[in-house]
Write a structure and sequence with these properties.
This protein has 31 helices and 33 strands. It is α+β, with helices and mostly antiparallel strands. The chain folds into five domains: about 180 residues, GAF domain (Beta-Lactamase), CATH 3.30.450.40; about 110 residues, Beta-Lactamase (2-Layer Sandwich), CATH 3.30.450.20; about 120 residues, Beta-Lactamase, CATH 3.30.450; about 160 residues, Alpha-Beta Plaits; about 240 residues, EAL domain (TIM Barrel). The longest helix is centred in the first third of the chain and has 40 residues.
Length: about 900
């Protein structure tokens, strides 16, 4: 099986056992993602191995990373491991298992290095691999490579003593996804370590220079000062931090820096300044370079002055030449140009940059700078030189490539400045050239990884959405159309299941090339994920044009694909939507195209459908538009929060307000929460909605507490919110920011969520309960929970569902409510009865000992302003 990035598709479970397996893997995938996003530390990686061993039920799960041994051979080094068996733990301590050369285990090495999964029983392994594991009675081996840019960096090994261990496709998919996540986390860790090394080197370099470096803020206060050069003899040291320049530095030095500061702040460019000091009864000439840099807060800007003693350099040279020779100490090349762009003078770094012997450097004088530039970059450089020479610009920065001395060009960043005479005429240009090849290539690599699919090298979702927004903006200006098509491979899963993921990847790569071959240069083909592609056709005037392209896309896929001698034919289901005919924006256009593609699959596959051709599309269109308006409403914070009081029937006082989301749609009016809450969950924006309800509720509670010190607020928590990373910490911070305590906020969890997976769910609920939040089980009685389960949960309050209250006019209904109340009493739980509509119900419940009730008999859910008036009376009168 070949590791394939992208989303994991889960087929419908065929049994409760499979459903539990699906859930277990999904929960493990979520926990692993959280750990790796937090930090790829040894502790977290070991925890990942433990989670994998626990979820898969194997005896040992280990992470191996590649290294070179003393002889230069590639080795697998055991990085971390988790074992559930003593015997396997001894295996992990074995020197042979801790580090072994790949060349000694050819099947394992060849399989992993080509990116395939090795899943074998011990009897199926060659003698070398079998010997490695057989000593500890390991019967099944599953090894998954860690791929980074197509290269194998290590692997995850899952080893089991179970002789009949069979891996389901779902398990392999999830484990491959986790392996990809591990690989990315290790790459991120490696980059962070490299950055730390670079930072250490920079600090060492500053201390090793012969210069004085002073960092100060806009108020003239010294922040840092560095120098190891004793020749300054100025008594400067770290103790000057916190003092002003004028307090700490000699007057001439401080005045020179302060005079240059306004020029730097005004222009944003570097400024050169100079001053003279008397040192050991000798006048010494100093030169400095001043520039801005962002402060650590990111708001203001600090300034850095680099000062050096230039006495010996200045004595025999003119001012301009002396500056160039001073700058020769740096890696940057300084060039003087004529207004036409001809080289007049340059520092020695120019010869080094162009790989020209110093003795032959003078041959460059009098030649155009463009002769040393890549032909494709000459036009942009010439345009900038013309703008500087004509005083359209004073300075600018440009990147270009120098002609390659060998195979690869050198990327240079040039800062060019116009030098004017006293009359204001441009008489020359000065440039500072810096070799940025390494950083430029790294930027390109990062951009490629961030914006393109790793398998097909096609644009990914991020880049597609950017192109889509640009295309729609142009269409609005030019009154043209934009066509967007979702493409899905029919029965692609069959190829993966029968021929393997390696064959599936080959199909995707081949198909992507074929689809691109029929598109224009301005069109965009993106891999959406899995076996789905999206094609963007911008700047279309004629409807027949994109219909013709759509048919060519379908036709080009019909040619068979040879997969190691197996001739495979594929078909496509394609759904197109057109802007502005079918949608009013990018999000709606994508949703409509996606719906149309599913329509194409539903009518027999292997066809192209256009949304405007679908006859029964009213409901689809309205549904898509409702989703779009809901997403926009949540993004704009347009949903409202109503509050329904919970009343103590004995004292007739309000004890709690339950926060309830309400949405008034401009087109449909009030939309019920039974409609928009599932929509928000489907769109993945339920967490944003929950955040808004929390913020609004806490702000209102802070206001209500000024009137009633005892009132609480209760807020419903969805499953996605409950298990979001750092949910408890973020909620505690919100409560503290509003001057409240966790005891003031009741968290309502539906019974179906609280008891879905008792061991997993209770862990988070125990965290919330330990933090001080009261926990209420909402809709109690609808989830068919067992008494033993309820006893284990950290629950404070039970809220009887309205469906039971509505049946209290019958004897059976009253008995059920009575039984629930008695159970709550036995467990020492508070009881709140929802849906109370009649006075008779109030009297009956009070007779059972229920004091807290909620329902329209007392008050419907009302806006926050009406709650203020209820609290001012401090009670809700019975009718």
């Amino acid at each position: 099986m070949f590791i394939k990035p992208g989303r994991v598709k889960f087929e419908a479970a065929q049994s409760d056992e499979e459903l539990d397996l699906y859930r277990g893997y999904l929960e493990t995938l979520g926990m692993v993602a959280g750990l790796l996003l937090e930090e790829a530390s040894e502790q977290n990686l070991t925890e990942v191995m433990r989670l994998l061993a626990e979820t898969t039920g194997v005896s040992c799960c280990s992470l191996f990373l590649n290294k070179l041994d003393d002889s230069g051979e590639a080795c697998a080094n055991l990085h971390c491991t988790s074992s559930t068996s003593t015997g396997v733990r001894l295996l992990s301590d074995s020197p042979k298992f801790h580090e072994f050369q790949y060349q000694n285990y050819p099947l394992l090495s060849d399989t992993l290095h080509v990116g395939m999964v090795l899943s074998k029983q011990i009897s199926e392994l060659p003698q070398a691999e079998a010997t490695l594991f057989a000593g500890q009675q390991i019967h099944t081996v599953l090894c998954i490579p860690l791929l980074v840019s197509g290269e194998m960096e290590g692997f995850v090994g899952l080893f089991s003593r179970d002789t009949t261990r069979n891996w389901l496709p779902l398990e392999i998919k999830v484990l491959c996804t986790i392996a990809n996540s591990l690989a990315l986390a290790l790459v991120r860790k490696r980059v962070e370590q490299s950055l730390a090394v670079v930072a250490t080197r920079l600090r060492a370099l500053v201390g090793a220079t012969e210069d004085l470096v002073i960092e100060y803020d806009l108020m003239g206060q010294i922040l840092n000062i560095w120098t190891d050069n004793q020749t300054f003899s100025l008594g400067l040291n770290d103790s000057l931090a916190g003092k002003t320049l004028q307090q700490s530095l000699p007057d001439d030095m401080a005045q020179a820096i302060l005079l240059a500061t306004p020029r730097v702040l005004a222009s944003g460019n570097r400024e050169i300044f100079e001053f003279t000091l008397s040192v050991d009864e000798e006048d010494r000439f100093f030169m400095g370079r001043l520039q801005m840099l962002p402060s650590e807060t990111g708001k203001a800007k600090n300034l850095v002055a680099l000062i050096r003693d230039a006495t010996e350099l200045i004595q025999e040279e003119a001012r301009r030449q002396s500056m160039l020779e001073t700058m020769n100490l740096l890696e940057e090349a300084i060039v003087d140009l004529s207004p036409e762009g001809w080289l007049l003078n340059f520092s020695s770094a120019w010869s080094k940059l162009c790989d020209i012997p110093v003795e032959n450097g003078n041959k460059c004088l009098g030649t155009p700078l463009s002769e040393y530039i890549y032909p494709d970059d000459r036009a942009s450089l010439g345009e900038l030189i013309e703008q500087l020479a004509s005083a359209q610009k004073h300075s600018d920065v440009i990147r270009f490539r120098l002609l390659p001395i060998q195979e690869d060009p050198i990327w240079v960043e040039a800062r060019l400045l116009a030098h004017c005479s006293r009359q204001g005429n441009v008489i020359a240009l000065r440039g500072v050239l810096r070799d940025i090849t390494s950083s430029h290539l790294q930027e390109q690599r990062i951009t490629q990884l961030a914006l393109h699919d790793a398998l097909t090298q096609l644009p990914n979702r991020i880049l597609l959405e950017d192109h889509l927004h640009q295309a729609i903006a142009r269409a609005e200006r030019n009154k043209t159309k934009v066509a967007l098509g979702f493409i899905d491979l029919d029965h692609f899963k069959h190829i993966n299941d029968t021929l393997g993921h390696n064959a599936g990847d080959a199909v995707l790569v081949t198909l992507s090339k074929r689809l691109q071959s029929v598109l224009r240069g301005i069109d965009t083909l993106s891999r959406w994920g899995g076996d789905e592609f999206v094609v963007l056709l911008p700047d279309v005037n004629n409807e027949e044009d994109f219909r013709s392209v759509a048919e060519r896309l379908r036709d080009v896929a019909r040619d068979s694909i040879d997969l190691d001698g197996v001739e495979t034919k594929i078909t496509l289901s394609i759904g197109f939507a057109v802007y502005p005919d079918d949608a009013d924006g990018p999000e709606t256009l994508m949703s409509v195209a996606d719906h149309t593609m599913f329509h194409a699959k539903s009518v027999g596959r292997n066809n192209v459908q256009f949304f405007q051709d679908i006859h029964d599309k009213t409901l689809d269109r309205e549904h898509v538009q409702l989703q779009t308006r809901l997403s926009r409403a949540i993004q704009d914070g347009a949903l409202q929060v109503f509050y329904q009081p919970v009343v103590d029937a004995e004292t007739q006082r309000i004890v709690t307000f339950e926060a309830l989301a309400r949405w008034h749609d401009d087109q449909n009016g009030w939309v019920g929460p039974d409609v928009f809450i599932p929509l928000a969950e489907h769109l993945g924006i339920i967490q944003e909605l929950g955040e808004q309800i929390f913020d609004h509720s806490l702000q209102r509670l802070k206001t209500w507490r000024e009137v009633n010190k005892l009132v609480q607020v209760s807020v419903n928590v969805s499953r996605l919110q409950l298990f979001a990373p750092a949910f408890v910490q973020n909620l505690l911070k919100k409560v503290d920011d509003h001057g409240l305590k966790p005891q003031d906020v009741v968290l309502e969890i539906t019974e179906s969520v609280a008891l879905l997976d008792l061991n997993y769910e209770s862990k988070r609920l125990h965290e919330l309960h330990a933090a001080g939040f009261p926990i209420a089980i909402d809709d109690f009685g609808t989830g068919y929970s067992a008494l033993s389960q309820l006893h284990k949960m950290p629950v404070d309050i039970l809220k009887i569902d309205t469906s039971f209250t509505s049946r209290m006019d019958t004897e059976d209904g009253r008995r059920i409510v009575q039984a629930i109340v008695q159970m709550a009493d036995a467990l020492n739980l508070k009881m709140v009865v929802e849906g109370v509509e009649k006075l008779e119900t109030v009297h009956y419940l009070r007779g059972l000992g229920v004091s807290q009730m909620q329902g329209h008999y007392f008050s419907a859910a009302v806006p926050a302003g009406m709650c203020d008036s209820l609290l001012q009376n401090n009670q809700v009168l019975f009718k």
